[in-house]
Amino acid sequence: MAEIQLKNLRHSYYPNPKTDADYALKEVDLVWEEGLAYALLGPSGSGKTTMLNILSGLLSASEGQVLFDGRDVTTLEARDRNIAQVFQFPVIYETMTVEENLAFPLKTRKIPTAQIKERVHFIAAELGLTSLLKRKARGLSAEQKQRISLGRGLVREDVAAILLDEPLTVIDPAEKMALRRTLKAVQLHLGVKLIYVTHDQHEAMTLADRVVVMDDGEVVQVGSPEELFANPAHKFVGYFIGTPGMNFIDCQLAEDMLIVGQTRYKLDAVTAKKLAMQSGGLSFGIRPDFLTLGAEQPGFSIPGTVVRMENHGDEHIIAVDIGGSQMLARVEDSVCADVGDAVHLIPSGEAIRIFAGQHVVPLPQTTFGGSS
Ligand SMILES: Nc1ncnc2c1ncn2[C@@H]1O[C@H](COP(=O)(O)OP(=O)(O)OP(=O)(O)O)[C@@H](O)[C@H]1O
């Protein structure tokens, strides 16, 4: 497995790109560390498949370099890059047995037969395919076929990375979880680098050590699932990750006061000065998970009126109008409130984030009374 680096990479599908909007991938500089599972997460059209195809060599980037362990592979064809790719639809030979399918990539590399057999049996065991080895691939379920596709990638010991492009799309919902669990177990056990494209945050968060979040051709943040949830560096990460996403409320600075709805937060002089220097409008960000309802706390709680309640069984999502904008709070079932009630939202001080334009402003955790 190799460390993969993308250097000053840009890609446009147009012959003469002029503006940023002509690029499907804008400036990307990224290192994919050895042995980790990565998810490439973003909405449709954000550039995930373009990035994956540039990594594999199926697509040649308009600008920049691709390095495997420091070696420049930018101009190498896909077959010379030692990359295995698993697509949405299984790519297997239907008339071959499972064993023959798994052995195929090794046979073409003239590996000795005994060695092939040993490796095929090892990988089949990893993927739960042992009992199917003598079966023809035709007639197996989509989930089993996708395991074979994955096995055809894993069977080679020299692969630099396994790239998976939404591999669970055609899998029955009931079987998705099992395959996802197998993928994670195989990745941990064999230490392979997986790069997994998805637009499903749940899939990304459960599978990956690092999530690369993309929006409109740009990598907006790379981090562990926990980091992205706790510390979104970009507004897009705040609302794309988490269900529901982060609340963003436009706010104003008036000397050393930050005005959020009807609440005026007193800031220390350093923070007030830092916020005054920002360009781009300020917004107050807090996840619904870190808001509760409670008694008024002057200068801290945010007053509003409940406009909607969604019952999720063991919890409620409550929408509160705070004077022209809405905040969502995720509260326990035992919290009593009704549509039309006047309430006070109590934020967790350490979970408040301030954004200028699209980007978070780094502030000490204690700014809003959180613990240090
Ligand atoms: N062959 C192509 N020719 C022209 N434009 C393309 C081509 N392939 C992709 N694009 C454009 O490049 C941008 C990024 O597309 P890409 O397929 O990489 O996004 P994605 O995040 O993988 O989306 P999806 O989840 O829908 O597959 C989109 O605007 C898309 O329309």
TrEMBL record:
GO cellular component: ATP-binding cassette (ABC) transporter complex, substrate-binding subunit-containing
SUPFAM superfamilies: MOP-like, P-loop containing nucleoside triphosphate hydrolases
InterPro entries from the UniProt entry: AAA+_ATPase, ABC_transporter-like_ATP-bd, ABC_transpr_FbpC, ABC_transpr_MalK/UgpC-like, Mo/tungstate-bd_C_term_dom, NA-bd_OB-fold, P-loop_NTPase, Transp-assoc_OB_typ2
Alphabetized UniProt keyword annotations: ATP-binding, Cell membrane, Membrane, Nucleotide-binding, Transport
A GO term, aspect molecular function: ATP binding
CDD domains the UniProt entry points to: ABC_Carb_Solutes_like (cd03259)
Keyword Kinase part of the UniProt annotation: no
Annotated ranges, domain ABC transporter: 4-241
PANTHER family, per database record: ABC TRANSPORTER ATP-BINDING PROTEIN, MALTODEXTRIN IMPORT ATP-BINDING PROTEIN MSMX
Family from the record: Belongs to the ABC transporter superfamily.
Protein name: Glycerol transport system ATP-binding protein
Organism (species): Cognatishimia maritima
Lineage: Bacteria, Pseudomonadati, Pseudomonadota, Alphaproteobacteria, Rhodobacterales
